[in-house]
Structures are given as C-alpha cells and as structure tokens.
# Entry
Amino acid sequence: KRPIVTAASASGIKRKRTGGGAVRVSTSTTKNGGVTAKSASKTNPLYDEFITLLSNPEYKGRGIANSALKSHFDSRYRGLVDVINELTRASRLTMSKGTSQTGESEVYFSLMSAEEATKLQGLDAPSKMVYQVIESSGNKGIWTVDVRQQTNIVQATLTKIFKQLETRRLIKPIKAVTAKTKKLYMLYDLTPAKEITGGPWYSDYEFDHEFIAEIRTFILMCIRRMNGGLGVGNGVTLKQIANKMIQANVSRVQLSLEEVQQLLQTLAFDYLIEQRGLTECGEALFVTAKKVTTMCDFGWWDAALCTDFDFRGIRFEDD
# Structure
C-alpha cells in the first residue's frame, strides 16, 4: 500500500503503543502554541535519498508514480511515511492521481523547491500540479489539452485553476504563430521562444513583409557602399554588415548574426548578392551580384553550319 498521510501525523501528533496494547498520543508544541513535528531530515536516513530521487528532471512536472517509489525503495518503502508527512506540511510535496502507461490508476508525487513552496502558498494540490506541469514546458509553453492529459483534471476545474494562477501572475497565456486560435501557457516571467512568436520576422503574429523589405534594402545598400560604391570591391563580411545595422539603428529589435545571415541568404537566392571568396579567418565575403542579360550574341552560329546544310532534310518525331 502507498504511504498515507494521516491527520495525526499531519498535525505533529505522535502515536506510541504502550505495553498493554493501548495507543498513547503525544504532541510537541512551539512557544506560540502551534503543533510541530520533529524533522524527518535529521531522524530519517531516507529523507535525502527521497529528495534526490524526486529532484531528477525526469520527474519534474507530473512527478514520480507510487509504484516507482515502491520499486526503488523496496523493503524501505514504509519508512517514507515520515518523509512524506514532513514535506507535505512544508507544502513541498504534492500528490495527484494519474494513469500509468499500462492504463491503471496511479498516485504521483511531485517535489517543489522551498522557493516554489513559498510562491504557491495557499494553492491546493491540483493547482500546484498544474503550475509544475506548465513550469516543466519552459519557454516553449504547453497546450491546454496537454495540461489536461498530464494532470487528469477535468476541463471545468482546469479553467478555474488557469484563471487563479493568472490572477496571481504565476502563469500567462500566449499564442503561437502556427496556431493563433489556441492557447499556450508558460510561467509569467518567461519570454516565449522564437519558435512560438516567430522571432523578429513576425509582428502581432503576422509575417512582417514591410520590415523585412526595409532591412534587405539597407543590407544591399551597405554591401554596395562598403565595396566602393559599385558593389564589386573585395567584399563585406557578415559581422561588418551587422555592426553597420547596429550603428544605423535600422531594426526595431536587436538582430543576431544568425538572423542577419538569414536575410543575406534571401538576397543571395534572389541573385542580388553573391559570395566572393573568404577572409583569412574563413569569413565569407559578399558583393553585389553581376547582372545577367537574357540577350546573347550567337554570331558564331552561321560559321558553325556548313553552307550546304539543308534544314528541310530534318525529320521530327511528331511529323
């Protein structure tokens, strides 16, 4: 059986069995009259092992199944009662119901840091579990349907929990450029990943054609001017272009070298610029592309044909 947090152990009450078989109940009180429990961390050697196990990133969010605890601690499993009681009183341990990989109902234990416990003070166990699931998603966020699947909480209750956590500024809803009608949730203080917002190329979840066109024009002008005005000099490096953009303050956001390189690639694909060699450090040098005309002089054609060449003698398959 899984460890059960009893009312007696939760309030610091200790039960001892006397010689006659009766149970003697004793309590320990603080100076202000509150009931406390003796720290399991000092008396139970399983405390540190339990903390280390649940601190594993593998069990972040949903937590560890009760069956996994039984398998890990084996015969020592019953000794976890005091550890679980103490961590529960300190609001550092949450317990929830879930479904195992085999489809059976399981109890899951999830550990919180002391800082998280303070931040989530006053929340019930389901709310803490939802917070931890969202936290584990990082800056990429998590869809509401995934939160429901991982926590096994009905949608009506989940909606109330979301609203409560939003009110306390613990989480925030965001939208992704790939699915504007759906909600993602992440921690309130995090900045969404570029995969979610689209990075600098998107504004209000829409692809910003005008902004990209302005930056491309500026880069093309830089390459021409920094190559002697005609754009056919020794070439300009990616870093030189990026530094020029910072000096001119042409972008509303700070672009990384990788993002500037993406713009250079679009110009190369449009055959407006081309690479001309490398620097001693191996950096690519860019110049404006040479213009290619569609008109070509085939003056050699007459000389290549014999004077007695007869076009009428040619037969085609579709004749």
Summary: The longest strand covers residues 179-187. The CA atoms of residues 216 and 263 lie 6 Å apart. Confidence is low (pLDDT under 50) at residues 1-38.
